[in-house]
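pinging the channel bc i need a second pair of eyes. not urgent but kinda urgent?? the chain im working w is below, pasted from the shared doc
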Amino acid sequence: MRDRILVVCPECNAGNRLPSERLAENPSCGRCHKSIFTGHPVSLDEIRFNRLMQHPDLPLLIDCWAPWCGPCQMMAPHFEAACVDLEPQVRLAKINTEEQPGLGARLSIRSIPTLILFAEGKEVARQSGAMGAADIVRWTRAQLNQQR
């Protein structure tokens, strides 16, 4: 990881340049002063997704889901729990494919739930099907270790 990285605020989308060794110190946004890492996945729309892709200093793990999907509902609390283990080294986000069909199409979502992992702005891994929190964390770390 670089000495200083640019992290996008989940609240106002502002870019914040932070020392990588201080990410775990609960940094606040320089613009809106809210926490940059909340322990909860960020909801993505096209604008926020594009902003995160413009500043890919942190890996991004996305859960693509829909409200009518039973396995998605079962996995939701596990994805939330994985956020506690993976932040601040990985930004976790969710895309409601019913509310964001264009983004779902752009990411070629064919089944849900689907996890997509981006590193340095590129998709590096994809996994469909519900997973538990420990499996999400293990899968994410394994995929990122393969990138190093």
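so The chain has a mean pLDDT of 94. and DSSP finds four helices and seven strands in the chain. — does that match what u expected or am i reading it wrong
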